[in-house]
Amino acid sequence: MTDLFISMGHDISVKNLGSGSFRCRELASDEVAKVIAETRASGGEISGYYKFDSDLSDDCMKQFDELLLAFEAITGTRLTRNDFMSEPDEDGDQLPNLNYMTAVDETCRMLVVGYFFQFNPPSNMSPKAWKESFMVARDHMEFNLIEQVL
Questions:
Q1: Do 136 and 50 form a contact (C-beta atoms < 8 A)?
Q2: Banded model confidence at residue 42, pLDDT cuts 50, 70, 90
Q3: What percentage of the chain's residues is helix, strand, coil (to nearest 5)?
Q4: 70 close to 115: Cβ distance less than 8 angstroms
Q5: What are the phi and psi torsion angles at 13 (to 5°)?
Q6: DSSP helix/strand/coil, 138
Q7: Are residues 38 and 45 in contact, defined by beta-carbon separation less than 8 angstroms?
Q8: In this predicted model, which residue has the larger pLDDT, 128 or 103?
Q9: What does pLDDT average to over the chain?
Q10: What does the DSSP assignment read for 69-106?
Q11: Rounded to an integer, what distance in angstroms lies between the CA atom of residue 102 and that of residue 25?
Q12: Are 71 and 113 in contact (CB under 8 A)?
């Protein structure tokens, strides 16, 4: 059983991956579904990290939901917010995995997802309209799988 940690965005440091040697290979979008399906079928856990704002603003959550929809459109695999949240505490509250990254080792691989924004310029360029004109592109993402070399 191997867990899969999904980092939404390229902003990770390879120095924090763990100890040992690592292999990074680019995956085609149709290969991503297979990696996730294999992880789930073997009982492995899927968790992830996304750059949430510390206050979990509505804008941040909207962008994250767009990102999950784009991921599903491109890979054919659904992820949920729960995959990016911590385990519930004693009060049942869940927090996002803020500044969190698990170690890549013999029990965990990491999928790094690079995503892009498309710009749909509105006719009215007010600051609010400008901000709302950027959406996560649903036609292209980059996928890199990082594994420990044993």
A1: no
A2: very high
A3: 30, 30, 40
A4: yes
A5: -105, 125
A6: strand
A7: no
A8: 103
A9: 81
A10: HHHHHHHS----GGGGBPPP-TTS---B-TT--PPPBT
A11: 19
A12: yes
Q: Hunting for tokens 């004693």 — which residue is that? A: 90
At residue 43, φ and ψ (nearest 5 deg) are: 85, 10
For residue 21, list its beta bridge partners. 149
pLDDT at 32: 96
pTM: 0.79
Angle at 117 between CA 111 and CA 123, to 5 degrees: 165
Nearest to 60 by CA among 100, 113, 86, 98: 98
DSSP 14: G
The pLDDT of residue 16 is 57
**Encoded tokens for 42:** 């073997």
Sheet-wide strand order for 108-119: 21-27, 134-149, 108-119, 3-8, 46-49
Structure tokens, 47: 């968790």
